Amino acid sequence: DPPAETVEEAYIMINSQEILRLIEDRLLLLHSNESFHSNIDNRHEQFQQYYVLFDNVKEMTQLWFETQNRWIFLRSALANLKVANDDQTYLKQIYIKFADIDETFRNFQKLAFQNPSVAGLAKVEMNRIHFQNWLDVFNELIVELDFYLNEQYRSKFGRFNFLSNEDLVNLISSGLDPRFYVPYVRQLFRGVYNIEFHLPEQTIGTTNNQTMNSAAIDVYGKLFIR
Fold first, then answer.
1. Taking every annotated instance into account, which residue ranges of this chain make up the domain Dynein heavy chain linker (predicted)?
2. pTM, to two decimals
3. Which of 14, 148, 176, 222 has the most beta carbons within 10 angstroms of its beta carbon?
C-alpha cells in the first residue's frame, strides 16, 4: 500500500477587514465621547490608553493580514511548482527559505487560534517583530517568484499587468469572500459600478475541503459596466 499522505495542520485568520472596520468605528466613537469628558483629568489618561490599544490592535491586524496573504500565496505557488522534487538549485533555495519560516508561522497561527485575543497579542512587542520579519522574508520570496506570477496569471489574463505584485498576491489569496475582489476589479475594469459573484456549481458543498494549494479558486463574476 502507498504511504499515507501527511496532512499539515494549519489555521488562518478570517474577517480581518471586518476587525479593522470595527476598530475605526470604535476610534470615531472614542473621539466623539472624549469631548464630553475633557474636563476630567483621569478620564483623559484613560482615553489615551484606549487610543494606544486600538492603534496597536489595528497595526497587528494589518500586519497579520498582509503576512498571512503572502504565506497562503507562497504555499500555493511552491506546491504548484513542485519545488521539493525540482533539480533547480534556485527554486530549492526559495523552498528552503520558506520552509524555515512556514512551521514557525503555522505554530503561531495555532497558538492564536487557541487563545484568540488580538488585543492581547498586540501588547506583546515580540509578536510585532515576528510579523515584520516574516513579512520581509515573504516579500523577498515573492520578488523571486515574479516569473510565476507572470506565467500563471498575467500571461493568461493580460489585465493583471495593471496590478502590482502586492495587489495580485492579495487578490489570489482573498479566498471565497467576493467583497475582497471589488477594489481589484475596479482597477482592472474602469467603469464598473456593480458586481455580482457566484461560485461554479461543482464547488458548491465542497468549499470547506479546499486545501491551501487551492488559494486561487475560480469565481465567476457578472460585471455591470457604465
1. 10-204
2. 0.70
3. 148
Distance, CA of 134 to CA of 71 (rounded, Å): 9
In whole angstroms, what is the distance from residue 71 CA to residue 77 CA? 10
**Cα–Cα distances in angstroms (integers) from residue 173 to residues 56, 65, 86, 192, in the given order:** 24, 10, 24, 22
Per-residue confidence (pLDDT) for residue 221, from 0 to 100: 35
- For cell 474636563, name the residue: 39
Burial bucket for residue 209 (CB in 10 Å: 0-12, 13-18, 19+): exposed
Written as nine digits, the cell of 174 is 482573498
Question: At the topology level of CATH, where does 16-174 sit?
Answer: Butyryl-CoA Dehydrogenase, subunit A; domain 3 (1.20.140)
Distance CA 138, CA 197 (A): 30
Residue type, 76: S
Q: How many whole angstroms separate alpha carbon 141 and alpha carbon 145? A: 6
User: What is the model's pLDDT at position 145?
Assistant: 92
- Cell numbers given for 176: 471565497
DSSP structure class, residue 220: E
Angle between helices 125-144 and 41-81 (to 10 degrees): 30
